[in-house]
Amino acid sequence: MGNADSALCKLPRVDDILDHPRLSALAGAPHSLARRAARQAVEEARSAILKGGAAPDTSADAIAARAADILRHKASPSLRRAVNATGVILHTGLGRAPLSLAAQAAVAEAAAGYCNVQVDLGSGERSQREAHIQWLCEEITGAPAALVVNNNAAATVLALNTLAAEREVIVSRGEMVEIGGAFRIPEIMRLASCRLVEVGCTNRTHLRDYENAITSQTALILSVHQSNYRIQGFASQVPVRELAELAHARGIACGHDLGSGALLDLRVYGLPHEPSVPESLAAGADVVFFSGDKLLGGPQCGIMLGSADLIQAMRRNPFYRTYRVDKLTLAALEATLRLFLEPETLPQRHRLMSILTAPLGEIRRRAELLATSIGEACAGWLTAQTKNGESEVGGGSLAGCTLPTVVVRLQSDDFAAAELARNLRLEEPPIVARVHDRAVVLDLRTILPDEDDLVVAALVRIGNLNQHAAA
Ligand SMILES: *Cc1c(COP(=O)(O)O)cnc(C)c1O
User: Fold this and answer.
1) Within this chain, do residues 132 and 180 fall inside the same structural domain, yes or no?
2) N or C terminus of the chain: which is more exposed, having fewer CB within 10 Å?
3) Under 8 Å CB-to-CB from 292, ≥6 apart: which residues?
4) CA atoms of 353 and 359, how far apart (whole Å)
5) Do 206 and 165 belong together in one domain?
6) The total number of structural domains that make up the chain
7) pLDDT tens track of the chain, all 471 residues?
């Protein structure tokens, strides 16, 4: 019998692995999952033997340890809370805006049982699901009617298709945006069955360019916010006010894809100016649409605002039925919008605004405390130093705008930076950080204040495991 054959004969059976103490310790996990994990671990050992090379550890203990890892992974939720240490405030990979406490509570409440998502409680009749947020949108932005869909990409398609199917839509060459993935204005136009008419140049477009492009086939002038890029230097675009005036004089509509959707003037909070929803409506745009999970700081959705007639036309479009949002999104959105009724309390009660307006002194204090705690708890294998840095707003908002921050840089002789960053991501909760200049960089602006201790605890566990492995 060859070496491989004898090793294969000695492989533990799946039942032996299932009975091993390492797996019995995870008795809470579903039995079918445990069996699958044990089978997978034995299979992996068998493949390793057949592949030859260095003899793998095929003891029952080693295979059971591997099975326990697989089981632990499969038995715990895959989508879960994570710590955003990246410094990108609206990080699409990490779910963009973190919800406020009020929105979290509203989601839990709506999820707990049935809810009145589309029933008018007074009459008992079927109602519109936007009824819950309609009045809030009007109160906050002045818009008479609102529609909510899955995201702003859907809102764009719905607006274009409703207002301009089989007709022409004029867009400036300076606003031919790609947001990421397949959201690119020319592709979206095709999807919505509209004919794109490009006017002007990349850096400059004039009102006369739009004027000259209007034909009997034109249905819409679309203004697209340059949310994730800037054209600097010899550059100009036509303001929405002038586009709306021109459109109305010629009997066509003016739409504004506002993207980031600031509900109020961010300068009040010491932030750079970002075109806001009320500004766009006041300028005369017939329909304004934007994301719910960018500067609004709510759940993923696309919000469309405009006259009652236009919004009703959008609602009747079959695309709307494919894009409408669920009760959990509406619950989170309503609670988030309510916070804007008291703008002066936003920095305290609105998570995203807290992050955007966090005073640098407070960030520095937390960074220094965190560096000290890590230095003490991980003495001997990890150094932690504070450094001034810059956080990015991200998510296609406030393009190119960074906010000052303080970061903690982690360096270790035991780990390459990328390896330490990977270990942090595999922690519970996962901690997602950047690697820069051979250090793991933790940005205290995006780590929520109640998460600082989680970071220390995760690093202590990583250090313990490493010492255990070395011993
Ligand atoms: C972000 C953005 C979109 C896409 O919004 P999603 O909510 O991500 O679908 C579309 N247009 C502009 C101008 C944007 O900034």
Assistant:
1) yes
2) C
3) 148, 151, 261, 298, 299, 300, 301, 302, 303, 329, 333, 336
4) 12
5) yes
6) 3
7) 567 788 888 899 999 999 999 988 888 889 999 999 999 999 999 999 998 878 788 899 999 999 999 999 898 899 999 999 999 999 999 999 999 999 999 999 999 999 999 999 999 999 999 999 999 999 999 999 999 999 999 999 999 999 999 999 999 999 998 887 778 999 999 999 999 999 999 999 999 999 999 999 999 999 999 888 888 899 999 999 999 999 999 999 999 999 988 999 999 888 888 899 999 999 999 999 999 999 999 999 999 999 999 999 999 999 999 999 999 999 999 999 999 999 999 999 999 999 999 999 999 999 999 999 999 999 999 999 999 999 999 877 777 789 999 999 999 999 999 999 999 999 999 999 999 999 999 999 999 999 999 999 999 999 998 887 776
Q: Is the separation of the CB atoms in 370 and 405 below 8 Å?
A: no
Residues 236, 217 share a domain: yes
Q: Backbone phi, then psi, for 179, in 5-degree steps?
A: -90, -20
- Please report the atom of ligand 1 found closest to the CA of residue 228: 15
Q: Does residue 4 lie in a domain region?
A: no
Same domain, 373 and 449: yes
- Domain membership of residue 2 (yes or no) is no
Question: Domain boundary residue among 346, 366, 381?
Answer: 346
398 Cα–ligand 1 center, Å:
13
The secondary structure element, H or E, covering residue 402 is strand 402-411
Distance (Å) from CA 177 to ligand 1 centroid: 10
227 CA: nearest ligand 1 atom: 15
CA of 420 to the centre of ligand 1 (A): 34
CA of 260 to the centre of ligand 1 (A): 7
Q: Which residues line ligand 1 (CB under 6 A)?
A: 151-153, 156, 177, 179, 183, 224-225, 227, 257, 259-260, 291, 302, 396
Q: Which of 294, 320, 346 is the last residue of a domain?
A: 346
For residue 204, give the CATH number of its domain: 3.40.640.10
For residue 24, what are the domain limits?
10-75
Tell me the DSSP string of 208-260: HHHHHH--TTEEEEEEE---S----SS-B---HHHHHHHHHHTT-EEEEEEET
